[in-house]
Amino acid sequence: MNRKRMYIAICLILMVGLIIIAVFQNKRNLKQSSKINTTEHVKDDSAKTEDYIDNKMESVPIGYLDSVKKGGTIKKIEYATKNYGPGEKEEYNKNAMVYLPYGYDETDKNKKYDILYLMHGGGDDEYWYFGDGSYESSLKCILDHMITNGDIPPCIVCTPTYQNSYLSNESESVKYFCEEFKNDLMPAVEGKYNTYYEADSVNTSRWHRGFSGFSMGAATTWWIFEKCMDEVAYFIPISGDSWCGGSNGTEKVKHLSEVVKKQGYSSEDFKIFYSSGDVNDIAYEAVSSQVQAMKVDEEMFQYCDNYESGNFFYEKKKDGGHDINTVYDVVYSGMQRLFARTKTTEQYYLWSENKMSDKEPAKIAKYEPNYYYGKIKKYQYYSTTAKRKTNVNVFLPPNYSKDETYPVLYLLHGYYDNEDWMAGEMVELKKILSNLINQGEARDMIVVMPYIFCSPEMEVCTGMDLQNSLCYDNFVNDLITDLMPFIEEKFSVATGRENTAITGFSMGGRESLFIGITHPEIFGYVGAVCPAPGLTPGNDLNQHPGQLKEDELTFSEENNPYLMLLSAAKEDGAVGNNPEIIHNILVNNGVKHLWNVIPDGGHDASSVRVHLYNYFRMIFRYKK
Fold first, then answer.
1. For residues 504 and 511, what is the distance between their CA atoms, to the nearest angstrom?
2. What is the rounded distance in angstroms from the CA atom of residue 400 to the CA atom of residue 416?
3. What percentage of the chain exceeds 70 in pLDDT?
4. Rounded to an integer, what distance in angstroms lies between the CA atom of residue 189 and that of residue 155?
5. CA quadruple 583, 350, 335, 122: dihedral positive or negative?
6. pLDDT at 244 over 50
């Protein structure tokens, strides 16, 4: 045995079969043995996602590895199959594990689910991802969190195995698994569970189905790409290249392009989210070779940063290896970009309402030793409205990077207070929001906490009267003319109303509603907690003449907020029933919004914390 083969054999033993790629390098030239179907297909593209978030590799939030109270379930399914490779076509039974999302009801045939098939790597089996279902596996927790937080809609995930003891090696098992997949596994799983599968027209449901796999499972994914385009439209190969069609990237890609056409499809009929670890991944060089060739073949593989403009994306995981952690990050990133569906406004409000709480969780403001925390820093900008330098506190999320862009929340304080109140210990914004971000419960975001008393004549509020109230009302001019341009120039900001939110407490709540209603083209998310009187005319017209008439508390159809949250405190001795008055006006005007009465709250930080806990988790998640 020469040194090369001895080295390969040692690696096989140490990696328990995960490095099969190196052993079977000479078998990647295997040609197809099954007949290719060139029949014209009835294509149903109605399930394609038309609005996509930008492509990138993201790490699974730390908190996604914890269990959720309302999680999905893991089931085992047994199905009959046979040996489709060389041999006597022996018949036998196999198992697969199936993840069903929370709330799945097998009797509700009207509720259908997208499905992802996820294949393991070399030397493993169908239990690698979920175990036998008797414990909370990491992948199950990740899926539970993704569905709970609205990253993806409820879906089904099936983890089968390509293992076939009747074939001589795993390379053959991978190659011939395609026939088992479409003839036996898919009908068994989707005939039992509520997917979009129709046996006599399977290609009409292909945009509801994906296939993914790691290492040898990635090789399986490419074989599925070659032979099962009728059945599958989404592909997530992880740390593995194609084993068919050639010995180098160029030959493989030419072959893959040809087989797509032979199956009757084109570049518009599939999407690929491709990834691997970096140089620490043993598959990195082979994957890189194929990726570069795919980028050259622009007719079939159109590389894109957003799937609106192409069908193929690749990014290596920084410091990633040939391991399960890379798999988790790729599945987390890929499923969001391929399986996320556009939400209607009604669905978004229902999802948000189901997340709404009337109390703050006990540990949400506690430091966790394994979490990273954001930073709050004070800045100054020149206000042409107030004609002076003005202070503003800015929260930057954990691991803030100028290479990324972040949505922005403008958070407004109450009467007599300043920019430090929301940033201080009473609200504990840094801990609450950082914990939510680490747990995946909130998006990474920038929070801007300005000083909203805006007057060229007075630097601070001197009393609760109309003169001072008008200075707070004047903040809208400072915000749009000076503060927002300052924030967008200094920080890495994602612009547009879909990335801009506003909310506030007491007088800040009144101003956030006024600003959100009068500038819906800027703010896609609007909130208020315990808003002060004066948004509409009150009983004391000398103090509260009203910023808007009641019938002006409305939006045009094209500028409705993606979400509006109005919170009140049951024991609020400062603003009384004013929040409820605003709520009733919005109801009468047909303005969709969420209404939450905090039972243990007063006109204080306790109500602000509950409101922010809800609002942080809701905003910046609407897919328009």
1. 7
2. 32
3. 91
4. 13
5. positive
6. yes
Please enumerate in sequence order all residues whose Cβ is within 8 A of that of 580, keeping only pairs 6 or more positions apart, or say none. Answer: 568
Output the pLDDT for position 541: 67
Please report the pLDDT score of residue 439 as a whole number. 92
Match 């922010």 to its residue by tokens: 612
Q: 281 near 324, Cβ under 8 Å? A: no
Give the pLDDT score at 48.
Answer: 59
Q: Which H helix or E strand runs over 254?
A: helix 249-262
Q: Cα dist. 490→213, 444, 447, 523 in Å?
A: 42, 17, 13, 20
**b/e map of 535-545 (b: 16 or more CB within 10 Å)?**
bbebeeeeebe
SS3 content of the chain, % helix, strand, coil (to 5): 35, 20, 45
Name the average pLDDT for the chain.
90
Whether 68 contacts 149, CB under 8 Å: no
Tell me which residue of 208, 212, 11 sits closest to 114, measured CA to CA: 208
Task: Convert 45-65 to b/e letters by CB count within 10 Å (16 or more is b).
Answer: eeeebeebeebebbebbbbbb
In order of 418, 517, 528, the CA distances from 424 in angstroms are 10, 28, 19
Which residues lie below 8 Å from residue 524, measured CB to CB, with a gap of 6+?
Answer: 496, 497, 498, 499, 500, 501, 561, 562, 563, 622
pLDDT at 589 over 90: yes
Examine the pLDDT at 214 and tell me if it is beyond 60: yes
61: nearest Cα among 301, 336, 287: 336
Which residues have a Cβ under 8 Å from the Cβ of 498 and sit 6 or more positions away? 407, 524, 562, 620, 622, 624
What span, in angstroms and rounded, lies between the C-alpha atoms of 200 and 229?
16
Asked if 63 and 441 count as a contact pair (C-beta separation under 8 A), the reply is yes
Q: Is 337 helix (H, G, I), strand (E, B) or coil?
A: helix
Q: What is the pLDDT of residue 46?
A: 52
How is residue 26 annotated by DSSP? Answer: G
Token readout for 449 is 């906490």
Reduce the secondary structure of 455-515 to three states and give it as a string. CCCCCCCCCCCHHHHHHHHCHHHHHHHHHHHHHHHHCCECCCHHHEEEEEECHHHHHHHHH
3-class secondary structure, 441: coil
d(Cα 485, Cα 569) in Å, to the nearest integer?
34
617, containing H or E segment: helix 605-618
Give the three-class secondary structure for 527.
strand
Is the dihedral angle over the CA atoms 451, 454, 455, 460 positive or is it negative? Answer: negative
What would the two tokens of residue 15 be? 């990696």
Q: In the prediction, which pLDDT does 132 show?
A: 93
Query: Torsions phi, psi of 244, nearest 5?
Result: -130, 145
DSSP 171-210: HHHHHHHHHHIIIIIHHHHHHHTTBS--GGGGGGGGGGEE
pLDDT grade, residue 478 (50/70/90)? very high
For the full predicted model, state whether its pTM sits above 0.85. no
SS (H, E, C) 533-591: CCCCCCCCCCCCCCCCCHHHCCCCHHHCCCEEEEEEEEECCCCCCHHHHHHHHHHHCCC
Considering only CA atoms, which of 449, 445, 527, 520 is closest in space to residue 483? 449
Distance CA 584, CA 602 (A): 20
Question: What single-letter amino acid sits at 296?
Answer: V
Distance, CA of 108 to CA of 439 (rounded, Å): 32
